[in-house]
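seq/struct pair 1
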Amino acid sequence: MSARDKYTVSTKYWHKLDDGRVQCDLCPRFCKLHAGQRGLCFVRQNLDDEIVLTTYGRSSGYCIDPIEKKPLNHFLPGTPVLSFGTAGCNLACKFCQNWDISKSREIDTLADEASPQQIARAAEALHCRSVAYTYNDPVIFHEYAIDVAIACREKGIKSVAVTAGYVCPEPRQEFYRYMDAANVDLKAFTEDFYHKITGSHLAPVLETLQYIKHETDVWLELTTLLIPGKNDSEKEIHEMSQWVVEKLGPDVPMHFSAFHPDWKMMDVPPTPLATLVRAREIAMESGVRYAYTGNVHNTDGDSTWCHNCGAKLIGRDWYEITDWKLTADGKCAACGTACAGVFEARPGAWGARRQPVRLRDFAA
């Protein structure tokens, strides 16, 4: 029996192979591991002929963010969300902008620890309406994220997944049973990009998007980081937007975000504002009702507009809400058309603040 610490827990999505290895069945990477080996995500390991999670209860840090930073523009606007991640990732994106966390192989990255109940208590005490599993992909800390979500749900606190959507059907079904909202990175719309630049495949992500939209009650928004010369052609954006409208519906918001040089793509220039503005135009021309620009200062691209009469429904300047023209039941105050989303009578007032939190202050 191998030595285990309190952060190591058994998992259920795996099976033994005839050659003695154990295959992880959590994501479509299907890592096949000899004794002691870790998967590409680094946090799932073959111990004692089973796959275990080695980071249960440990985090790279906790912070209160505006919900718009996830980004979610149609889910409890203006409210604070307690955000945390762990270490590792099941993708290998060359442009990763959280690479110090997602590519970490150092246990020291996990500087804080908390039980699911501790996180729920902290979120409640700090008046956070939701908890976000973010910074790295919650797919890889599946068991921990679900336990946190259960503890939060008992206190009326929502759960938000920020994910690339690269997960197998059975764990996907279990995971989204406990989520209330998700922002999924649709990183591109070609298999070539996914294979060469992220080390994964497009089809499973599209399957996840359709599953969330059509088989759950989870509020869904999409984000695409537009990288110059890689996934920013008008043709690709048009095809992506058309697919979203046809397969997911016109009410799923799309966020087009600016790339900045990072990780293994330092030689690629930042995304011009004009590219993001044009992507937003293409999406709306394709029938997407709510399209946004991100990582740039563009108040028109930050704001929510009525798809029927064109009135500004929610004015935004970066993460600050500057205007609110929704009725108490989420309709345009000018024409009465419903705005898709999860809204309350008034927005939150958290603003653009970012507040680090120490979970040890909320120990039982």
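seq/struct pair 2
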Amino acid sequence: MTDSVQSQIDSVIKGNDIVLFMKGTPQMPQCGFSQRVSAILAAHEVPYVSINILLDPAVREGIKIYSDWPTIPQLYVKQEFIGGCDIVSEMHENGELADVLKPFVKAA
């Protein structure tokens, strides 16, 4: 894996409050797990940046190295790796995710 890919990933994560690395886009997810996490974020009404890892194999492999996590999707909030679909779903169900995302909820 090239350092430039790791730098690119690091720059996106550090430059945005909430980043979701996913298969596809929020409007057209390409797997059920990515669809689930993007739907959870939509339910919380938070703005986020999504990165479609299917567009670049280097990013697809690079994010797994960056996080030391083998699966996609991957959610980052304020540069912290939150987890994949199972962890995000569990946090959503028990209310933890609402606490993490509260500072980013769009004003009504």
